[in-house]
Amino acid sequence: MTDILTLEGLTKDWFGVPAVSDLTLRVRQGACLGLIGQNGAGKSTLMNMIGGIVAPTAGRMLWRGQPYSPASAADAAAAGIAFIHQELNLFSNLSVAENLYIDGFPRRLGLIDWRRVHARTREILARLSLDVDPRLSVGNLSPGERQLVEIAKALHNEAQLLIFDEPTTSLTARETERLFDTIAALRAEGRTIVYISHILGDVRRLSDDIAVLRDGRLVDEGPVDAFPVTRMIRSMIGRDLGGLYPPRTAAPRPRPVLEVRGVTQPGVVEDVSLTLHEGEVLGLFGLMGSGRSELARILFGLDPHQGGQILLDGAPLPAGPRGRIRAGMAFVTENRRDEGLMMEASIADNLSLVSLREFGRRPVGLIDPQALSARTEAARTELAVKAGDIAVQPVKALSGGNQQKVVIGKWQMSAPRLFILDEPTRGVDVGAKYEIYALIDRLAAAGGAVLMISSELEELTGTADRILVMNRGEIVGGLDRAAFSDERILSMAFREDAA
Amino acid sequence: MIPAATAPPSASPPPFTPRRGLGARAGDLILSDYFVLYLSIAYVAALAPFLPTLTAPGNIVNVMSNMWPLLVVAIGQTFVLAIAGIDLSQGSVVALTSVVGAMLITTAADPAVLAKAPIWGLVLTEGGGPFAGLMGGVGLAVMAMLLVAALVGLLNGTTVAVLNMPPFMVTLVGLITISAFAIWLTQSENIARLPESFIKLGKGDIVSVHIGAKDSPQIPRREVYSFVTYAMVIAVGVAVAAHVLLNRTIFGRWVLAIGMNRRTAEISGVPVRRVIIAVYVISAMCAAVGAILYSARLEAGRPTLGGGTFLLDVIGAAVIGGTSLFGGKAKIIWTFFGVLFFVLLSNTLNLMNLSSFQVDMVKGAVILGAALLDVLRTRLMQERRR
């Protein structure tokens, strides 16, 4: 098989600091290359060079055997290279067809030839088995459908190489399956795929070859058959982690912290009961739309519920998040950027937000700056946040993993009894994931209770003492650590109602 | 990963500091809290040779007396901008509270002027307002002005915080209705004859300086310059209190947190609605204090105070200082320098004998320049973080 894209000694320096150095890599025609690496390993810079966004400092690229040096994103698209990004590049106010044709509409008598536009769009959508009207605006589509529209755009531009960058982050399990079927179909048409993801199982499943980047260099490559997940991780972080998950250091105690009895909100959750004990990590698994995040919001007082009771340490809770925080609850939501952090504010300001009241002196709430900065500095040390001066550096400048540590840390400062963690490792690379799992273990060992919600089953079986499964707003079953079985959990999560 | 950033910030200074280029130093200057102050000084230094009256003691006194009321109102606006809101109703609150204060304490009213006003007979008679000649009447009137403002602020804040209506809309409606109400109250007439103890708040001086020949025993009035006035003490007092409130208290942190990201603040337990309401109350009450200073200086309650381009001056001064219209970024000291620069600008343009239309055109251009400066600052900050 020939190579469709060859990179020879490709290098990119940013002010003398190499982001990618001397990288030589071949992408085989018609194959799928899995590209992995931690955040900051140089994947984005590499993709930006291929996509014509940044110019390499040294080295060259060959596209179908010819020298290739794109000066803009349009050059890359014209050559037949398409990017499917994690943040989709669609105009949500325009229709599906308009998005496909945004860079040039066919015209008849000086006006747009809508008949041709819609017919051709319909034909492409049919190839992807996406059954939507080309005139429907993209804003009305689900994340999975939008992704397929991105792919349709690539097909419309006759792309030969499709580069997927973390395409599944906002997809449900079903939509992910559908995306994988589509990728298989694209390959059957002879197109070439580069698949970039932190979800190593997906990368193994889709790829023929694996390439690992670390610190801007290609550190390992080979056929997928010789590339078990352990080798992927070892190559990515440059050492053995000694397993993906840290060992649990303490066992749950019998005293209940959170008791939920028959909580019901029509159309959202139905008769949910659960008990969470001191020192316990309780995993809550469910597909998107199963009500897991909605339950978390109800427990924290952000959303209302009609029936049932929620008790913390045996006492009923006041309404609303403020009362529940005072009672000892903490909530790390799934949306770190919009609900967890003030991106522009400093690390210290973010860390202190929840527990500010403790540092105010009456009568006007004058803050004691020494006590506050001593406390935030201690939190930073404890969390091992990799940053400069935390009073100055904004959280925006931190990596995803360090940002998440700040979110967990700001709650930890108020010493809560119950932590609700919704997707705590989303968008976090492998090394930092391990640190977050270790942090979760420490929270539990210190006597707190942790309710951990995740759509990655593997991380729940790796960290939880017990797993409950939600399906259509109900808790449909639970397993203790000794009885964990992916198969049983998945079958409960996917089970369709008879009705 | 941030490899080079793990050095402890408190480490002793490195033995060798490379010389920093001109560009880096210019960047430091633009990012400094004092940039607008330097700009003001440079502006005065550049114009002084051409406008000798600019640095004359009389003009300096004039600039300062123009600064104080504007500063107080702009401080209120700074709090609102800090939560990513805007308060367009401030000018109308100045007008309403000016009328309310004056009608309570005026010592005599002319029926030929005010007999058609709806307050005639009800509050106002030929013998003046209800508090005229009363012991502590001025104090009561000031309280009434603050109370009226607080009610307007409460209404604004509650509508914004609880009904989630856009602050631009809410306060624009406030601007239109309240200023119309103030004009209707007196049928557009001024209420004059205010007691001396009230007028002192705007014009009275505490420390005066005599500049001139010391040969005659009688000092001519025009050679006495008021440097420390009651208005200055009030304005600086408000500024210091506002600075402490915004920078050193829990409330201030909450204000900035809401401006930065309201969702995050809510989930982190910040009493978001209460803080928003309080901020609009602060804004309106600052407008009332501004109204005290303006009315005392005018020696009258005037229902058209705070009209025209007043709002432009207030928001312009805050933004030139560096407060962001997007919220989360505000300092009282920035507003102080912004007000200084803005007042200097108006003053110099007047000294150049430009018409008020020409003055407004230049002011508009300067505000545009300030917005550009904000963009430049943001870009510099981002580049430095790399």
TrEMBL record, chain A:
<keyword id="KW-0677">Repeat</keyword>
<dbReference type="InterPro" id="IPR003439">
    <property type="entry name" value="ABC_transporter-like_ATP-bd"/>
</dbReference>
<feature type="domain" description="ABC transporter">
    <location>
        <begin position="5"/>
        <end position="240"/>
    </location>
</feature>
<dbReference type="InterPro" id="IPR003593">
    <property type="entry name" value="AAA+_ATPase"/>
</dbReference>
<dbReference type="GO" id="GO:0005524">
    <property type="term" value="F:ATP binding"/>
</dbReference>
<dbReference type="InterPro" id="IPR050107">
    <property type="entry name" value="ABC_carbohydrate_import_ATPase"/>
</dbReference>
<dbReference type="GO" id="GO:0016887">
    <property type="term" value="F:ATP hydrolysis activity"/>
</dbReference>
<keyword id="KW-1003">Cell membrane</keyword>
<protein>
    <submittedName>
        <fullName>Monosaccharide ABC transporter ATP-binding protein, CUT2 family (TC 3.A.1.2.-)</fullName>
    </submittedName>
</protein>
<dbReference type="InterPro" id="IPR017871">
    <property type="entry name" value="ABC_transporter-like_CS"/>
</dbReference>
<keyword id="KW-0547">Nucleotide-binding</keyword>
<dbReference type="Pfam" id="PF00005">
    <property type="entry name" value="ABC_tran"/>
</dbReference>
<keyword id="KW-0762">Sugar transport</keyword>
<keyword id="KW-0813">Transport</keyword>
<keyword id="KW-1278">Translocase</keyword>
<dbReference type="InterPro" id="IPR027417">
    <property type="entry name" value="P-loop_NTPase"/>
</dbReference>
<keyword id="KW-0067">ATP-binding</keyword>
<keyword id="KW-0472">Membrane</keyword>
<feature type="domain" description="ABC transporter">
    <location>
        <begin position="252"/>
        <end position="497"/>
    </location>
</feature>
TrEMBL record, chain B:
<dbReference type="GO" id="GO:0022857">
    <property type="term" value="F:transmembrane transporter activity"/>
</dbReference>
<feature type="transmembrane region" description="Helical">
    <location>
        <begin position="167"/>
        <end position="185"/>
    </location>
</feature>
<feature type="transmembrane region" description="Helical">
    <location>
        <begin position="67"/>
        <end position="86"/>
    </location>
</feature>
<keyword id="KW-0472">Membrane</keyword>
<dbReference type="Pfam" id="PF02653">
    <property type="entry name" value="BPD_transp_2"/>
</dbReference>
<keyword id="KW-0812">Transmembrane</keyword>
<feature type="transmembrane region" description="Helical">
    <location>
        <begin position="357"/>
        <end position="376"/>
    </location>
</feature>
<keyword id="KW-1003">Cell membrane</keyword>
<dbReference type="InterPro" id="IPR001851">
    <property type="entry name" value="ABC_transp_permease"/>
</dbReference>
<protein>
    <submittedName>
        <fullName>Ribose transport system permease protein</fullName>
    </submittedName>
</protein>
<feature type="transmembrane region" description="Helical">
    <location>
        <begin position="93"/>
        <end position="114"/>
    </location>
</feature>
<keyword id="KW-1133">Transmembrane helix</keyword>
<feature type="transmembrane region" description="Helical">
    <location>
        <begin position="134"/>
        <end position="155"/>
    </location>
</feature>
<keyword id="KW-0813">Transport</keyword>
<keyword id="KW-0997">Cell inner membrane</keyword>
<feature type="transmembrane region" description="Helical">
    <location>
        <begin position="275"/>
        <end position="296"/>
    </location>
</feature>
<feature type="transmembrane region" description="Helical">
    <location>
        <begin position="308"/>
        <end position="326"/>
    </location>
</feature>
<feature type="transmembrane region" description="Helical">
    <location>
        <begin position="35"/>
        <end position="55"/>
    </location>
</feature>
<dbReference type="GO" id="GO:0005886">
    <property type="term" value="C:plasma membrane"/>
</dbReference>
<feature type="transmembrane region" description="Helical">
    <location>
        <begin position="224"/>
        <end position="246"/>
    </location>
</feature>
<feature type="transmembrane region" description="Helical">
    <location>
        <begin position="333"/>
        <end position="351"/>
    </location>
</feature>
